[in-house]
Amino acid sequence: MKEMWVAGVTLDPMTKSPIVILRDKENRLALPIWVGALEANAIVVVLEQMELARPMTHDLMRSLIDNTGARLFQIEIADIRDNTYYAFLHLEHGNERFALDSRPSDAIAMALRCRAPIMVSPEVLEHALPIENAEIMPENKEGKDKLTDLLDKMDPEQFSKYKM
């Protein structure tokens, strides 16, 4: 498995659906994961360090984990079948370790809140895109950020084929 991090959230240019972009630590691969609008919001809240008046569902889940003495030690984007990603929350409580089935968007939102690593299986990494020139965030000569540039270079057949 390879550890990745959230590079950002962008929109599918064709459907306007949110896409979470994961990058590997070597900045060689980008993995786009299509998510729902509410799930994207749960991720962006953490990335933007927003303070909310009331806890969101993922904040409640983190509080439950913390208050029961458990720990989220990593999440895993484990598989992609029929254009749907599958993920797991890997938790430990005392000497026991266990995994809970999760949507990738919820797993990512939890990983960000619990500061747990985001691990991606080799099978899923086969769907990752190579990153040219390693840096995504700075703008290129045409004024587009590299996330947009990367999405522009994707085969249009890849858009909208993934399910949440």
Give a short summary of the structure.
The chain is of the alpha+beta class and 164 residues long.
CATH class: Alpha Beta
Using only C-alpha atoms, the radius of gyration works out to 16 Å
For this structure, the CATH topology is Bifunctional nuclease domain
Principal-axes geometry comes out as: globular
Structural class computed from helices and strand pairing: alpha+beta
Instruction: Summarize the helix and strand pattern as letters.
Output: EEEHHEEEHEHEH
> What's the rounded overall pLDDT mean?
85
What is the rounded distance between the termini? Answer: 22 Å
Describe the protein in words.
- The chain is of the alpha+beta class and 164 residues long.
- The chain has one domain: Bifunctional nuclease domain.
- 27% of the residues lie in helices and 35% in strands.
- Strands 6-5-4-7-1-2-3-8 form an eight-stranded mixed beta sheet.
- Helix 1 packs parallel to helix 3 and helix 2 crosses helix 3.
- The longest helix is centred in the N-terminal third of the chain and has 11 residues.
- It is globular and about 45 Å long.
- The C terminus is likely disordered.
Question: Strands, helices and their partners?
Answer:
Layout: E1 2-11, E2 18-24, E3 29-34, H1 37-47, H2 57-67, E4 70-81, E5 84-93, E6 96-102, H3 104-114, E7 118-120, H4 122-125, E8 129-130, H5 146-153
Parallel strand pairs: 4-7
Antiparallel strand pairs: 1-2, 1-7, 2-3, 3-8, 4-5, 5-6
